[in-house]
């Protein structure tokens, strides 16, 4: 494990805010000056490949990274952009054939709930 990967993992570990590459880059560049954004992105992709983090990508939103690799869902606040984990059982079992053809294997499943007025939203004045 390189110093860059270790630092990215340290900065990501335990976070609940599902940071973007830009957010992580700002923190990492303070710890390791001279680190490029491309290096941070490559380190994140490697951590995802090894199962130490996961990409959380939803249409219309920036790709975020989550240190929680256990099966769970997400809530995306359309008002303030905050993302939070939603505990839930892993979706499992066979899909109906109208969803996927016979023999289709589901690797993972994720549900994104979208709404407004989450606990992180600024209080209305």
Topology of helices and strands:
Elements: H1 3-12, H2 21-31, H3 37-49, E1 54-56, E2 64-66, E3 73-77, E4 83-86, E5 112-115
Helix pairs in contact: 1-2, 1-3, 2-3
- The coarse silhouette is globular
Order of helices and strands: HHHEEEEE
Topology, number of strands: 5
Strand line-up of the largest beta sheet: 4-3-5
Class of secondary structure makeup:
alpha+beta
| End-to-end separation | 48 Å
Structure write-up:
The chain has 125 residues and is an alpha+beta fold. The protein is 27% helix and 15% strand. The chain has a 3-stranded mixed β-sheet, with no helix packed on it. The longest helix has 13 residues, at 37-49.
Task: Name a few traits of the molecule.
single chain; 3 helices; three-stranded mixed β-sheet; 125 residues; globular; two-stranded antiparallel sheet; alpha+beta
Give a quick summary of the entry:
Helices cover 27% and strands 15% of the residues.
């Amino acid at each position: 494990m390189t110093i860059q990967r270790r630092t990215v993992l340290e900065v990501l570990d335990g976070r609940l805010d599902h940071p973007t590459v830009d957010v992580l880059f700002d923190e990492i560049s303070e710890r390791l000056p001279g680190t490029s954004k491309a290096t941070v992105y490559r380190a994140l992709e490697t951590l995802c490949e090894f199962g130490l983090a996961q990409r959380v990508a939803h249409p219309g939103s920036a790709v975020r990274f989550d240190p929680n690799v256990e099966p769970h869902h997400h809530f995306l606040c359309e008002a303030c952009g905050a993302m939070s984990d939603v505990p839930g059982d892993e979706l499992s079992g066979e899909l109906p054939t109208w969803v996927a053809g016979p023999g289709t294997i589901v690797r993972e499943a994720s549900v994104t709930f979208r709404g407004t007025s989450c606990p992180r939203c600024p209080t209305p004045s």
